[in-house]
Amino acid sequence: MPEYHNDGADALPASKSQRKRDMDALQDIGRALTELPAAKLKKMNLDDGLLVALLDFQKITANGAKRRQLQYIGKLMRDIDPEPIEQQLAALRGDSSAHTRWLHLLERWRERLVEDDSHVQQLINDFPQLDVQQLRTMVRNARKEREESKPPKANRQLFQLLKELIPEQGKPANSGDEQDNTQDE
């Protein structure tokens, strides 16, 4: 079945060179995936066959075998939509503006929590599944660190808690809505 690229008025079959560029682009995405640790690969919702091929690639030591496995990964990539994978890779690299906005949102929440108890109560109301005692302890420790000019260990823990709690745009939500949380800024 020939691929068609509609660059002009008439739909022409893709040239051999264009198909090769497309396959190389998919193989490049596969190469980027091979550089990720196994734990991150497992979190990415990849096709099972692709995930196994990527994990196998990481076990291979011979250069020729690595090259063949990379070609196989590129072949598997032809059958899946690469767009979600590219978005996740961009987010991991920090290229994604949506990911950056989400990180800024988390940072604002952390600052508000440390500054004022009313925001702690608002977060508890927005996310009822939250462990209230753990949150209050983290906030109290973060405030104490700030007052004593200590390293921000509790601040980091609070950020990680928020990261698990507030979903990133386009990722499955635990509960709540990110848009509701940004309205009072």
TrEMBL record:
Coiled coil: none annotated. It comes from the Bacteria. Keywords: Cytoplasm, Ribosome biogenesis, RNA-binding, rRNA-binding. Residues 1-23, 163-185 are annotated as: Disordered. It is found in: Cytoplasm. The keyword DNA damage does not apply. Member of a network of 50S ribosomal subunit biogenesis factors which assembles along the 30S-50S interface, preventing incorrect 23S rRNA structures from forming. Promotes peptidyl transferase center (PTC) maturation. Belongs to the DarP family. This is Dual-action ribosomal maturation protein DarP. It comes from Vogesella indigofera (Pseudomonas indigofera). The lineage of its organism: Bacteria, Pseudomonadati, Pseudomonadota, Betaproteobacteria, Neisseriales.
